[in-house]
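in:
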C-alpha cells in the first residue's frame, strides 16, 4: 500500500488526510480553531496555532492507520495546500514577529487604495484591482504601522510556506499560492518588481518559488523524531487550496466549473491560455501551461456557520454530542419554505463582497424581513442567497470561458442534498457531487503521486483518483427560481456604488 499525507490549512480548521493511489481517503482528521478579531476588520491567528493543529491532525490520522493495521511506513510523501493571502512575518530565528494577518482581514483598505492609485492596471498579476485582502496591501500596512518590526523581517511567508518551513526548514513557495498576492507576475512566473520596490521588500526576504508538485526534499530530523516518521518521507510542493481542489475534482480542462462552499464561496474554471482582459482573477493552474479563472465571495459557509452559532446557539452543540450533523438538522427539516423564502432575501456580504460589484462597505443584509418570518425562513434565505451569488459568478465565468453543463460541488456544502438540489434549480445546471468532497485533499495527493512517478501525468492520475458519488438535476422549481433570481439582482443594485451591475440570466 502506497499512501500520501496531505495537510489542508483552511481558514478555521486544519484538515489532515491520508490518500491511496486510487483517490480513496484512508484516514482523515479535522482540527478546528477560532480566529482572533481584536478590532473591526482585523482577523488574526497565532502561527503556532496552525502548526500545533497540524501535529494534532497528523497524530490523529497515524492513530487511525495503526488501528486499521496499516503502518505509517507506507506513507511516501507529505504536501501542503492552504488558503491564500494569509501572511506571516518571520525574524532571523524563524519566529513570527506578530500574529498572522488572515486573508479575511480588511485593515489595509487605505493601503489598497494607495496601491490602486499608484499602479492602475495590474493585469500581469492576475488581478483586476488590488483588494484589501490581498497580501501586498497587508505588507504595506505592516510597513507603515509596525515600522520597527518591519525592519526586523527576515522572511515574509504565506501560511502554506510557514508549514512547509516547519516541516523541512526550507523557505519554499509555489506559484499557485502566490497568484493572489499582487506580488507575482503570473505570465512571466517571476516577482512583480514594481510592487516589491514600492513595498521596499527585497527578493531576498521572500521564498523561493517552484511549480506545484515538485519534490522539496526530506523532513527535518526533529519532525521525523516527533512523529516517528520514516526518514524516507519526502516533502512535495503543494498549492492554493482552491487550485488543488480543482485538480481533485478533475477540473483540469476547459468546460468544467467547480464550486466550493467552505469558509468562503469560490467558483473556478480552467483556461487554456492567459488573458489580461478578464473581470475575474486569473491564476496559474497546477497543470503546467494552464491557468484558472476564479470568482469568489469571502463569506460562503461562514454565513451558515454564523447562523448555526447564533440562531441555533442552544441546539447545535447537543446535536454534535448526539452524533448528528448540525447543518443537516438546520436545513433538512421536512417543513421548509417555498422558493423565495417567503419574500426574504439574504445578501451574504458578511466579510465584504469580493469581486461581486456592490459597494465595498456593504455587509450582510436581510431584505424584506417581516413579522411572519421564522428561523426556517432565515436559514432558507441564506442558502438561497449563496446559490443566487453562485449563479451570478457562474455567469461571469461563462462569459469568459463559454457555457458549461455541470457544476462540480466541493467543500462542506456538498454534503447537503437540499442545498445541492437548490443549486441545480437556481443555476439550471446539473450538480455533480464527488465521491470525496475533500477534493483539495485528493488533489494534493494527485500531485504527490505524479511527482513520485506513480502516474505519468496529472491527467492520468486524475482519471484514476477522481470519482463521483451522485448527481442532481434541475426540476420543476427551476422556473420560479429564475423569476426570483431576477428580483434578487434588482434589489442588489441598491447596494451598488458602481455605474451598473451587469444583468445576467
Amino acid at each position: 500500500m502506497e499512501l500520501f499525507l496531505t495537510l489542508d490549512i483552511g481558514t478555521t480548521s486544519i484538515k489532515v488526510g491520508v490518500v491511496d493511489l486510487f483517490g480513496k481517503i484512508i484516514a482523515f482528521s479535522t482540527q478546528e480553531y477560532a480566529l482572533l478579531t481584536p478590532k473591526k476588520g482585523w482577523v488574526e491567528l497565532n502561527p503556532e496555532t496552525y502548526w500545533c493543529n497540524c501535529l494534532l491532525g497528523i497524530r490523529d490520522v497515524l492513530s487511525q492507520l495503526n488501528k486499521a493495521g496499516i503502518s505509517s511506513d507506507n506513507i511516501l510523501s507529505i504536501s501542503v495546500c492552504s488558503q491564500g493571502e494569509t501572511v506571516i512575518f518571520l525574524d532571523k530565528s524563524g519566529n513570527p514577529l506578530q500574529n498572522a494577518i488572515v486573508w479575511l482581514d480588511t485593515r489595509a483598505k487605505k493601503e489598497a487604495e494607495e496601491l490602486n492609485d499608484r499602479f492602475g492596471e495590474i493585469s500581469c498579476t492576475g488581478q483586476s484591482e488590488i483588494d484589501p485582502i490581498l497580501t501586498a496591501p497587508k505588507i504595506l500596512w505592516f510597513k507603515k504601522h509596525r515600522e520597527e518590526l518591519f525592519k526586523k523581517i527576515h522572511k515574509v511567508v504565506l501560511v502554506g510556506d510557514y508549514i512547509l518551513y516547519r516541516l523541512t526548514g526550507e523557505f519554499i513557495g509555489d506559484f499557485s499560492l502566490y497568484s493572489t498576492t499582487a506580488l507575482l507576475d503570473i505570465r512571466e512566473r517571476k516577482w512583480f518588481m514594481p510592487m516589491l520596490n514600492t513595498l521596499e521588500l527585497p527578493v531576498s526576504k521572500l521564498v523561493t518559488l517552484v511549480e506545484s508538485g515538485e519534490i522539496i526534499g526530506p523532513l527535518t530530523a526533529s519532525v521525523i523524531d516527533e512523529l516517528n516518521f520514516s526518514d524516507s518521507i519526502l516533502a512535495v510542493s503543494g498549492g492554493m487550496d482552491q487550485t488543488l481542489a480543482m485538480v481533485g475534482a478533475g477540473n483540469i480542462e476547459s468546460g468544467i466549473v467547480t464550486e466550493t462552499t467552505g469558509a468562503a464561496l469560490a467558483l473556478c474554471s480552467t483556461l487554456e491560455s492567459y488573458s489580461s482582459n478578464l473581470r475575474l482573477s486569473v491564476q496559474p493552474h497546477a497543470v503546467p501551461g494552464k491557468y484558472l479563472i476564479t470568482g469568489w465571495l469571502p463569506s460562503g459557509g461562514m454565513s451558515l456557520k454564523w447562523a448555526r452559532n447564533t440562531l441555533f446557539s442552544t441546539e447545535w452543540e447537543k446535536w454534535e454530542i448526539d452524533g448528528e450533523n448540525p447543518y443537516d438538522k438546520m436545513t433538512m427539516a421536512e417543513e421548509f419554505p417555498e422558493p423565495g423564502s417567503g419574500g426574504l432575501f439574504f445578501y451574504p456580504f458578511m466579510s465584504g463582497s469580493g469581486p461581486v460589484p456592490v459597494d465595498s462597505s456593504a455587509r450582510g443584509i436581510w431584505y424584506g424581513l417581516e413579522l411572519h418570518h421564522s428561523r426556517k425562513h432565515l436559514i432558507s434565505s441564506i442558502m438561497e442567497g449563496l446559490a443566487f451569488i453562485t449563479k451570478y459568478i457562474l455567469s461571469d465565468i461563462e462569459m469568459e470561458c463559454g457555457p458549461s453543463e455541470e457544476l462540480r460541488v466541493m467543500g462542506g456544502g456538498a454534503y447537503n442534498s437540499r442545498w445541492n438540489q437548490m443549486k441545480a434549480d437556481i443555476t439550471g445546471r446539473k450538480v455533480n457531487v464527488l465521491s470525496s468532497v475533500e477534493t483539495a485533499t485528493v488533489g494534493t495527493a494527485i500531485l504527490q503521486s505524479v511527482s513520485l512517478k506513480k502516474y505519468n501525468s496529472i491527467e492520468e492520475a486524475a482519471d484514476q483518483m477522481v470519482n463521483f458519488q451522485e448527481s442532481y438535476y434541475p426540476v420543476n422549481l427551476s422556473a420560479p427560481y429564475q423569476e426570483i433570481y431576477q428580483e434578487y439582482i434588482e434589489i442588489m443594485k441598491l447596494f451598488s456604488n458602481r455605474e451598473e451591475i451587469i444583468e445576467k440570466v
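note: The chain is about 35% helix and 20% strand.
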